[in-house]
Each structure stands twice: as C-alpha cells, then as structure tokens.
Amino acid sequence: MRITPKAELEHRCARLQGKMAEAGIDAVIILQNADLFYFTGTIQSGCLYLPVEGQPLYLVRRDAGRARMESGLKEVIPFGSPKDVPRIVAEFGYPEPKNIAMELDVVPVGFFERYKKVFPQALFSDATPLIRQVRMIKSHYEIHAMKDAADQVDKVYRRALEVIREGITDIELAAELEYVARRNGHLGHIRMRVFNGEMIFGHTISGTDTAVPAYTDTPLGGVGPSPSFGQGASFKPIARNEPIIVDFAGSIDGYLVDQTRVFAIGGLSERLVKGYEDMVKVQELMMAIAPSRPTWGALYESCRQLAVEMGYEDSFMGAKGAQVSFIGHGVGVEIDEYPFIARGFDTMSLEPGMAFAFEPKVVFPGEGAIGIEDTFYLADDGTLKQLTYSDQRLAII
Amino acid sequence: MRITPKAELEHRCARLQGKMAEAGIDAVIILQNADLFYFTGTIQSGCLYLPVEGQPLYLVRRDAGRARMESGLKEVIPFGSPKDVPRIVAEFGYPEPKNIAMELDVVPVGFFERYKKVFPQALFSDATPLIRQVRMIKSHYEIHAMKDAADQVDKVYRRALEVIREGITDIELAAELEYVARRNGHLGHIRMRVFNGEMIFGHTISGTDTAVPAYTDTPLGGVGPSPSFGQGASFKPIARNEPIIVDFAGSIDGYLVDQTRVFAIGGLSERLVKGYEDMVKVQELMMAIAPSRPTWGALYESCRQLAVEMGYEDSFMGAKGAQVSFIGHGVGVEIDEYPFIARGFDTMSLEPGMAFAFEPKVVFPGEGAIGIEDTFYLADDGTLKQLTYSDQRLAII
C-alpha cells in the first residue's frame, strides 16, 4: 500500500499554482474525489483550498484524523461547511480571492451555489483544464503504481486463459476475472470523470454482443446484465469460433491501466483475424509516430487514416453510426484523463510523462468486434514505453 | 432480466407530472443515469424531456436503437446536443417552457449552463425533491426486483459462512462474496446519488478496522485497500474473537437491497454480544413503530432514544465525533433514496410503498463495531414487511 509522498504532493500543488498564476486565478477549490486524492494523497469529505501562493489548506469534515495520517500536506483543518472557508482563509493571512476556479465539469450545481454564496464578490471559472494539465504529466512514482496495475491485469489475462470454455457465460467469466483482480488489490472501483460515466472492472463480452453499441463512450459496449446497466458482460454463453473480448482496467493504489486482449475457442473468421492483425498495425504506427510528439489530434488522424486505407472506414472504433472519435485516452487516477488521442485536439502535443491507453478496434455488426489495447507512456528520454505487457497474440484456446 | 413494463413507466411519468403541476413547473429535463433508468426503463446517453402535460420525449444521442428496444416510452428521438431541444419541443407542439426543473444536486455546472443557454427566458429550479418523492413509493414490480436482490444477498451470506476462516484477509473474503454476487447477476455497480458518493458491493471489514471512521456517509467505514479508496475491505487478516462485518448491497435489474450480518470465529466479547442484542432491540422497536406511519425524524428519534437509554449515546451510529445522524436510508435504484430515517426529517411520514434499509450499529474504537441491517417496506395494507431474510443470529463459526 502506497502513501503518496509529501514531495509528490508539494510538487503537484506547486505545478497547479504555476498554472493558476499564468491564468490569473487567486484560488482553486477542489471538491472531487479523484482530484482530492491527487493533490492531498487521501480522500476525506471536505475540500482543498489552494491559494496561488502559500500552503494549500485541506479542510476536512470527515475524517480529519485520517486526513492527518494519510495526507502529507502540512495544513489539515477540521471544518463544518463552505461558510467556514472565508474565515479560515483569512486566519491563514491569505487575501480574499477575487478569481476562484472550481471543477465545473463535475461539481453539481447545488454544491457550486453554496461556494458562490460564501464568496459573493468573486468571479468563478473552470479549474478542470488546469487540473487536467497538471495531472496528465505522470511522475516516476505514478508510473511505478501503474506498472503494478499492469502486473495485476496480466494475472487477469492468465486467468482468462485458464477459465474460458464453451458454455461459460460472459458474466461468469467476468466474475472469475474480477475475483483475481480483487484478490490482487483492485479497488473494485474505476474512477471516470465524465458526468454519468459508470465503469466497473471493464468489459468482458463475446460473440455478436461485442458489436452492440452502448451508452458508454467506448468503441465497444456490450449488452450488460440488464437495461439498468447496459454495458459489459451479459448472461450470454460463450461459443466456439467467436471473439471473446476482455477489456480490463487494472487498479492499484488509485492508479489505472487499461488493456484489451481477444480470445477464441477454436478460431475466428478470416475477416476477424485480419481485423486483429490490422489493428496491431495501427498500434505499431502509433508507436512509431508518438516519439515525434505529434499533437493528439494529428496522432489520431494518422492512425485513423491507416485504418481507413485498410478498408475500415465504416467499422473503425465502432459500428457505422456509433463510431467514437478517439482511439486513445489518458489514464492515471481516472480512466478518461488527458491526453485524448481524438479528433480535433490539435493544440496540445504528446509530452514526456503522458500516459495513455491506445485501443484500435473494429466492429462488424452481426459478427463481432476485434482489436487490441495497451497502456503506454512517453518516458523522459522521449521513448515510448509500454506498461501493459500480456501476450499480444490472439489467444486461440 | 427485466424490461420495465410500459405501464410502469407511464405511471411514473404521470406521477411526476402531477407533482410538477402542483409546483408550477412546465418541464423537467432529466439527465442522470438513475433517474433516466427509472423514467425510461433504460440508460442511453441523452435526456428525458417531460412536459407537465403530454408524452415524455426521450432524446437520445447514443444509442437510439437500444433506447427503442429497451424503453417502453412512445417517443424516442435521436438528438445531437442540448441546442436541438427547443426545436424538438416545438415540433411536438409543446409550449416553450417558462419554469424548468433539473436535477441540480447531481448535474454538473458545465452541463447545466448548456441547458440554461438554450432556454434563456426560463427560470430553473431543482427537480430532485419531486423526483425523490415519486421514486420513494415503490410499485409491486419494484418490490419484486428487490426480493430477487434479497435472494442474492442471502447467497452471499451463506457463502460467507463457508469461507470465513482465520487468516483469510478482508479483501479476500470480499472477493469471494463479490464473486457469488456477480455470478448471480449483481451489476457490479451500486448507484449512490450524493456527489462523490463511491460505493462498491459493500463493506467487508473485521476487528478494529470496523471502528475506523471513513469519508463515507455510513456508520462504519473501514480502512480500504489504500488511501485512494479508504473504505471497505483492507488486507487485514481475520483473527479469532473479533467481529467480521459483512454489509452487502444486493443488486438485480437495477434494484438494490442492503443487509448487514456479523460473523465471528470462536466468539465475541460480552460488550459486543450485548451490543448486538441491543441493536436487534432497536430494530424491533422500529418494526413496532413503523406501521403507525411516524415522520422519518420521529422514527429516528424514538430509536435513537432507546439506544441512548441502553447506554450507547457516544457509540451509536459511529464513534464519538464521527457519528452519523441517520439510522436508515431509502433504497431502490440508488442506495441513498427517500425516506431518510434521520434527524430533522420531521415533515414527511412513512407511507405504504416506501422501502428502506435500517441499520442500528454501535462502534467501540479500538475494539470494533457491531449491529444489524435489513431492508423493509411498508406494504399496501400498512404492515411492515422485511425483504432481506438471512439468519439474524450472530454467526459464530
């Protein structure tokens, strides 16, 4: 079990303060769990008040004792409600903030209004773009946690090789794999930032179910156990000669990696086998280009272009009409971080420290989907390193 | 697998429309997954536009085909963005809404602003209290799904009896129980409405860990596998003569029940055994009072009063300084629904159709916690029925 080192937290807060100074923001008030974990090292009920200069103030309703034990931040202060914040800020000698940023993509209206009320003179803006920019550059410490998550997901992959057999249902297979992950420290919870983003361990889906579109912002969705959770594994029994997709997020100490491998009993159609080989080629192209630090959008376009040239215009990243406009997504504390390897993200480039999952996939309605996914990061020396490492070959059982 | 019947959906929408008319609201725009599931029968990316009179319009970005298959609502309309809503509303001949309600406790500021922009003349208010009031009255259909969830959680209880042994860790035990639940259709996801509410299957915790306060709004929290998820099972090995708490939420077809049972290898201290018996007495008091339809707050106060009289003022519902101000919470699609059996809820009374978990617990820091939890509902004939039914005795192994 890791306790985030004090130096990590100080460095993270200082980097956000640097971006706040550039943007003319006096204070950021952080409320959301993933951001609290990143900047404080723990998640207790409360908020982090980060002034543009000076020590961050971690205001904790519950539980202040645990916050003191688990957080390396110097100032952990018990508090009752947003009403207390201006007083505490003044007590620490910080000026009254005129420009406050909050996480407007995730904080509900009702919570936001309470903070607006206690700082009636302030202007409010969205802190999330700045927070995302800080969080997108991983430290060695973070990469180390993600390597442990990659070990976990490889155990899941190996277990899939053992338990896949004709007649087992997708949800039974999912249960087996989740069991292995949990015994190896998986939190049992995947953080997804986007509103309404619901994700469990991943998607374990087989056959034509792999080609069913879902509400999730993912190339493959699955049917799920019921319309109340219409994604991932259903009660469908696994048959011979169909793709079995294990898209699984490893999770250790708050850090994620994402990996997809495809299994089949017997074998697969020529079209699916070729689709798999072609998606590996898209991955290889990405690996060749990434070290040149293209913009996220340019990397997306180059890889999509190859898929189109290989004949997948209508099947790449989803069935026609349900295609998503990304091939990769940053991972770390959340499954949907910067960088977005996606259409239109033309202003930001890949940089050392960025970690992302890359998942070229094709979908043939009525037949099935196929593809591959691994998690990568750009190292300090500019080379692209692969974090997930399970055998990349189609797993024919 | 259940598909919510059309008549259920129509009745639910009509009930919300009745409350809208009383409150002077022209339209409710529903965005959040749990509410979408309740009012549409599925969860696709999009929104439900419910006018105070007329058919609800289910506007779906992704996937409209699935929405048509899974939802019994008549009007499923593909749409691209909030900008399209006024045009679609006009096309259906509905008047331009002047008073719009949205789920302000859960919708993030950024999403809300987009809807505000497309209805610049409208006044906006919070739809959640009305939605909660509709959802708090369960139909026979819903109670039936919850009975299935109670069967699932009983299987979990029985499995705990089989696998608890000295030396197994809390997280290993949790993995075993989650495995059983998943194989029996558990969605793997517990919906919690409150911002930052994170919940997996429940809390499997033992020994002094049961008395550790957490950020969760629960009487017991647990240490968790890391500060990144500081609740529930940790890597602590289970020992003899300590409480092993299995607080588990069953989940079938989108419906939840909540049950807590306590196990021990060998036995427990006199204080803990007495604590358990006394918490059963608090439960019995609740069962005796509930049919008289007290206010939620009055029911809370009566039960808390008994706990205080039995000497638990400083240990009831949390250790001193970390006590929560509720003993029960509504359950259904979410784990934190109306009714709240909690301090201060003095205006609303128990009514037939209300379902809730009731969880009297005591916490002794440094020793452990103990208590019981079951899920109940008030039937049409005014009697209180118990949904969860695992053996209520302390399970001494």
Automatic annotation (TrEMBL), chains A, B:
Residues 12-137 form the Creatinase N-terminal domain. Pfam families: Creatinase_N (PF01321), Peptidase_M24 (PF00557). Residues 145-378 form the Peptidase M24 domain. InterPro entries: Creatin/AminoP/Spt16_N, Creatinase/aminopeptidase-like, Creatinase_N, Pept_M24, Peptidase_M24B. It comes from Geoanaerobacter pelophilus. This is Xaa-Pro peptidase family protein.
